[in-house]
C-alpha cells in the first residue's frame, strides 16, 4: 500500500515508483551507446534540445523529485530520486552545460533556502521545466577570494532598484536567462553586511555579456556589465542587507555540500581507472611496468577520494550547521587531486595525449582519448581556483573545523566606505 504524504496525494511505494519510472524511461529516453559520444556542447541547438528534454521530464513528474510540491516539485524523499537515477543510468538526460549544473545544483537550491514564496512560485517551476537557466553573478574584477568586498551596487529608486557595476567568471552566462547577482546596498556598515542578492534577467536593458576565451579554446567564462539596470523588489532573494547569509548557503552548494542536484545522475566508473587503462591500451603502453604503476596509483587515489566524499556526505547530513565548512574538504580534494590525475593521464598517454584528429567523420570536434586527456590537463587547475582557492579552503578548514586561530583582519569591523577610503592611502613602503 502507498504511504501517506500528509496532503491529498499518497506517496507511492518505492518499488512501484521504480517500476513506473523504468517503464517511462524505456519509452521516452534515448539509450546511450558505450562509450557515450560527445554531444553538441552549448551551442543553440544543443541547449534547445536539452531544454526540451528537461520539459519532458518535468511534465512526466521526474524533475525536482525531492523539491517542494508547492513550487512544481514532487515532494518525495531522496530514496525516490536515487531510484530514478539508478534506472536512468545509461540513458541520455538533459544536457544544459555548465549553466545547467549551476542552475540545479547551486542557484535553485540557494533560492529554495532563502527566497520568498512569491519568488519561488514564479521561478522554480520554470527552472524545472527548462525555461529558465540561472548563473552566478558573484565574483568581480576586484573581489575574487574576498567576496565580501564586492562593489557592484544597487541603489533604491522609487519602488525598485538600479544596478551598476561588473561581474566576472560567470560560467555559461552567454546562454543563460537569469543571473543571481550579489550587490552592495549599504556602504556604511562592515563589508559582510549591506549586501543583497538580486535575480537579474540576462537580456534586461543595460546588461552586457562578454565571453572570455580560455586556454582550451572554449569561451564558457563571461564578464557582465550593468549600466542602470532596473530591478524590482520582487527580484530580491533573501533579505535586503543580509546577502552574506545567502552567500554562505550558495558557497556550501558550490563546494559540494548539497545532498540533491535535481535531475542529474551520477555515473560512477567501475574497474581500475578505466579511462587510463583505455588510454594506455590505445597508446600501446598497457604492458609497460611504469605505466601500469601510474594507473594503479591513480586507482588508489580514486578510491580514497570516493571514500572521503562519501564520509563527508554522511557527516554533512548529520551536522548541517557544519556543512559549509565540511564542504571545503570536498572542494580542496578536487583542487589538489585534479591536477595530479590530469598529469597522470598525460604521462600514460604520452604522444597520444597531445595528438588527435581535429574533427571526426561528421565534422564535429574530435573526441579521441588524447583530446580528453589534453583538455583535462588544461582544465585541471580549475577547481583549485573557482569557487574559492585551495588556500581559502584551508583557511576555512583550519579556522572553522579545526578551531585554529583566525588570521588577522583589519577591515572586518569598519564601514565599507571607510575601507575603500583608507585603501587609497595604503603603501608598500
Task: Describe the 3D structure.
The chain has 429 residues and is α+β, with helices and mostly antiparallel strands. The protein has 3 domains: 3-131, Acyl-CoA dehydrogenase/oxidase, N-terminal domain (Butyryl-Coa Dehydrogenase, subunit A, domain 1, Orthogonal Bundle); 136-253, Butyryl-CoA Dehydrogenase, subunit A, domain 2; 268-401, Butyryl-CoA Dehydrogenase, subunit A, domain 3 (Up-down Bundle), CATH 1.20.140. The chain has 12 helices and 10 strands. Strands 3-6-7-10 form a 4-stranded mixed sheet, with helices on one face. Strands 4-5-9-8 form a 4-stranded antiparallel sheet, with no helix packed on it. Strands 1-2 form a two-stranded antiparallel ribbon. A hairpin with a 2-residue loop joins strand 4 (153-157) and strand 5 (160-168). The longest helix is centred in the C-terminal third of the chain and has 30 residues, at 289-318.
Q: Ends: how far apart?
A: 77 Å
Named at the architecture level, the CATH assignment of the largest domain is: Up-down Bundle
Give the structural class: alpha+beta
Mean pLDDT: 88
- Please report the number of helical segments: 12
Q: Uncertain runs with pLDDT below 50, 5 residues or more? A: 259-268
Radius of gyration: 23 Å
Cross-sheet strand order for the largest sheet: 3-6-7-10
Amino acid at each position: 500500500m502507498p504511504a501517506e504524504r500528509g496532503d491529498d496525494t499518497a506517496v507511492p511505494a518505492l518499488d512501484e515508483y521504480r517500476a513506473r519510472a523504468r517503464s517511462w524511461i524505456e519509452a521516452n529516453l534515448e539509450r546511450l551507446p558505450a562509450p557515450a559520444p560527445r554531444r553538441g556542447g552549448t551551442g543553440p541547438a544543443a541547449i534547445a534540445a536539452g531544454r526540451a528534454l528537461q520539459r519532458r521530464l518535468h511534465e512526466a513528474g521526474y524533475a525536482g523529485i525531492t523539491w517542494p510540491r508547492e513550487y512544481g516539485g514532487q515532494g518525495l524523499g531522496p530514496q525516490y530520486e536515487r531510484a530514478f537515477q539508478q534506472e536512468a543510468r545509461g540513458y541520455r538526460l538533459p544536457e544544459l552545460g555548465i549553466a545547467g549544473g549551476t542552475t540545479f545544483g547551486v542557484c535553485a537550491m540557494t533560492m529554495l533556502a532563502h527566497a520568498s514564496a512569491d519568488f519561488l512560485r514564479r521561478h522554480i517551476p520554470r527552472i524545472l521545466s527548462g525555461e529558465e537557466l540561472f548563473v552566478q553573478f558573484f565574483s568581480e574584477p576586484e573581489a575574487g577570494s574576498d567576496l565580501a568586498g564586492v562593489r557592484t551596487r544597487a541603489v533604491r529608486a522609487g519602488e525598485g532598484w538600479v544596478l551598476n557595476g561588473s561581474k566576472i567568471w560567470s560560467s555559461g552566462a552567454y546562454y543563460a536567462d537569469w543571473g543571481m547577482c550579489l550587490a552592495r546596498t549599504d556602504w556604511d556598515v562592515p563589508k559582510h553586511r549591506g549586501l543583497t542578492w538580486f535575480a537579474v534577467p540576462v537580456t534586461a536593458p543595460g546588461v552586457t555579456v562578454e565571453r572570455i576565451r580560455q586556454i582550451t579554446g572554449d569561451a564558457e567564462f563571461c564578464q557582465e556589465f550593468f549600466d542602470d539596470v532596473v530591478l524590482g523588489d520582487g527580484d530580491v532573494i533573501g533579505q535586503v542587507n543580509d546577502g552574506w547569509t545567502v552567500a554562505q548557503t550558495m558557497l556550501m552548494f558550490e563546494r559540494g555540500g548539497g545532498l540533491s542536484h535535481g535531475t542529474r545522475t551520477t555515473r560512477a566508473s567501475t574497474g581500475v581507472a578505466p579511462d587510463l587503462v583505455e588510454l594506455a591500451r590505445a597508446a600501446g603502453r598497457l604492458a609497460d611496468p611504469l605505466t601500469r604503476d601510474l594507473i594503479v596509483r591513480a586507482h588508489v587515489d580514486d578510491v580514497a577520494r570516493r571514500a572521503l566524499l562519501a564520509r563527508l556526505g554522511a557527516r554533512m547530513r548529520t551536522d548541517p550547521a557544519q556543512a559549509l565548512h565540511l564542504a571545503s574538504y570536498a572542494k580542496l580534494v578536487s583542487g589538489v587531486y585534479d591536477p595530479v590525475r590530469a598529469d597522470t593521464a598525460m604521462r600514460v598517454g604520452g604522444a597520444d595525449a597531445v595528438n588527435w584528429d581535429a574533427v571526426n567523420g561528421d565534422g564535429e570536434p574530435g573526441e579521441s582519448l588524447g583530446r580528453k586527456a589534453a583538455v583535462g590537463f588544461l582544465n585541471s587547475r580549475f577547481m583549485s581556483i573557482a569557487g574559492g582557492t585551495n588556500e581559502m579552503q584551508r583557511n576555512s578548514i583550519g579556522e572553522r573545523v579545526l578551531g585554529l586561530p583566525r588570521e588577522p583582519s583589519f577591515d572586518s569591523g569598519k564601514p565599507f566606505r571607510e575601507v575603500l577610503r583608507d585603501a587609497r592611502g595604503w603603501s608598500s613602503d
